[in-house]
Design goal:
By secondary structure, the protein is mainly alpha-helical. The chain has one domain. The protein has a three-stranded parallel beta sheet.
Amino acid sequence: MIGELRTKLPLVLLISDQGTERERWLTVEGLKEVKKFAVGIGPAKALLDADPTLVKRAHEAGLTVTPYTFKSSGVGRFKDVRQEMDYYLYTLGVDALFTDNPDRFPRRK
């Protein structure tokens, strides 16, 4: 797989919360495999909700964590998308996030 990509662009592996393939990538061994071809993982938010320790494990493997997708609709238990993004960034410690609402990005002073 590594040789097939032939790119110098930094890659992030998106990992869905559906299907069985996610289990391959979320283990310590799987994260080490990801490190061979990507700079980070992009897990569905539900994966981090189910296992907040994933951020720490990915960071220990030298990977960034960029969950997806944050949008005004579907914020679940949060008051709004800004509060949801704040939780993932500052409580869980993700490095970045994919959002449909960059205007709502939480900024801390």
